[in-house]
Amino acid sequence: MERISDSGSTDPSITIRRMRLTARIISVPIILFILLFFIANFIGPDYNTVEDYPPIENLLPVLVILSVISLGFAWRWELIGSLLCLILFASNLLLFWLIRGYFFPLQTFLPLSPIVLCGILFLLIGIKTGKTRKT
Does residue 132 contact residue 126 with C-beta atoms inside 8 Å? Predict the structure, then answer.
């Protein structure tokens, strides 16, 4: 049951709880999916990789993994975790542009966009609560 304030709008705490629940529901599959690939890479790395692969290209998946790990931090510290997630993701986009000379292709960005969505939701929650809330 929703609480209605005197102005007729819903209680902000209910909105925050719904935003937090939405961000957590979206972030769980993202975290599990990325961790699955991270673990699979160590269990059975691909030995048929292309020769002359520049080592700096390894920073791109590392930044994605760190961005997803920061989503886990956002569960506990919303403002810090979300800022870290968004900064790492933006640095991934910038690094891709610096390495390749063109912007991140849309077909690559779209599957990663839920990471940005969760980061923005956690950022809004952190701003609305005004502190790095512990749950």
Answer: yes
